[in-house]
Automatic annotation (TrEMBL):
Pfam short name (any one): SBP_bac_3
Residue stretches making up the Solute-binding protein family 3/N-terminal domain: 25-248
Family matches, as InterPro entries: Solute-binding_3/MltF_N (IPR001638)
Protein name: Transporter substrate-binding domain-containing protein
SMART domains: PBPb
Taxonomic lineage from the root: Bacteria, Pseudomonadati, Pseudomonadota, Gammaproteobacteria, Alteromonadales
Top-level taxon: Bacteria
Species, as recorded: Shewanella algicola
Length: 255
């Protein structure tokens, strides 16, 4: 009889311990977008933003569950599911209409690029691109930032940034538009040389970070917000940034 009582107490303690120490898992939707986030050949999540989430984990009351998928699906799922997060996402007016901003961890620079052997191409303001041909990823955001419409005679719309870069490399266009992180990754992917290209005009400085569903529980959102704040205050975010990116001075954008 005593043996059964002891066994019951042990089992009860196990269940009590599990209920006390169990933590909720919260989904963080994202896409494959190195160097911010990707999966290595072992299936492990790696990248700048991944390191930030790993550093934030000890400061959170929940466990981070990263789910990587195409951006359109990640965006849709995060938009439809309260108490989830999405990263690495730009802080734009259009996206703030669908999500609640949690916090930024980096600022990307959107630039117009030319070949380095084309010093004759000079841009001082956005409207100067009217004098040249431009390969552009078809998106409302890009058109809005460059103050263009979809019928501009000198614009060649492409399906991918690598397609635009290839057109520039083979002198089929004078200019392309990309952020400096994506541009550097595309250069590496295509096997080109970074020094063969020059950023000729900064367009916009875009905060990149984490957003959540508009109906996410405020305590959950604040928990994540405070974790990011802690990483900024204790210097951990700066250390992670130094590991992934070279020091730089963010240029002023030109209207």
């Amino acid at each position: 009889m005593i043996r059964y009582i002891v066994a019951f107490i042990i089992i009860a303690n196990i269940f009590i311990s599990q209920s006390v120490y169990a933590r909720d898992k919260v989904v963080f939707f994202t896409e494959h977008y190195p160097p911010f986030q990707s999966q290595n050949h072992h299936g492990e999540f790696v990248g700048f933003a991944i390191d930030i989430l790993h550093a934030a984990q000890p400061h959170l009351d929940f466990d981070i569950d990263i789910q990587l998928m195409p951006w359109s699906r990640a965006y849709y799922n995060a938009q439809q599911t309260p108490n989830t997060f999405i990263f690495s996402i730009a802080n734009t007016d259009k996206r703030l209409a669908h999500f609640r901003w949690v916090g930024e961890f980096y600022t990307v620079q959107d630039m117009i690029y030319r070949k380095s052997n084309r010093p004759d191409i000079v841009l001082e303001k956005i409207n100067d691109i009217d004098r040249y041909t431009l390969a552009l990823l078809r998106s409302d955001a890009a058109l809005n930032r460059l103050k263009l419409d979809g019928t501009h005679p000198n614009i060649y719309f492409v399906r991918s940034q690598t397609a635009a870069l290839k057109m520039l490399q083979f002198d089929r266009v004078d200019l392309i538009y990309n952020n400096e992180i994506g541009f550097a990754e595309d250069i590496k992917k295509m096997g080109y040389t970074l020094n063969d290209f020059t950023a000729v005009l900064p367009v916009v400085n875009m905060p990149i970070g984490i957003s959540t569903h508009k109906d996410t529980d405020e305590k959950l959102a604040e928990d994540m917000r405070q974790a990011l704040h802690t990483l900024k205050q204790n210097g951990e975010l700066a250390k992670i940034t130094e590991r992934w990116f070279a020091p730089r001075v963010i240029p002023l954008v030109t209207e």
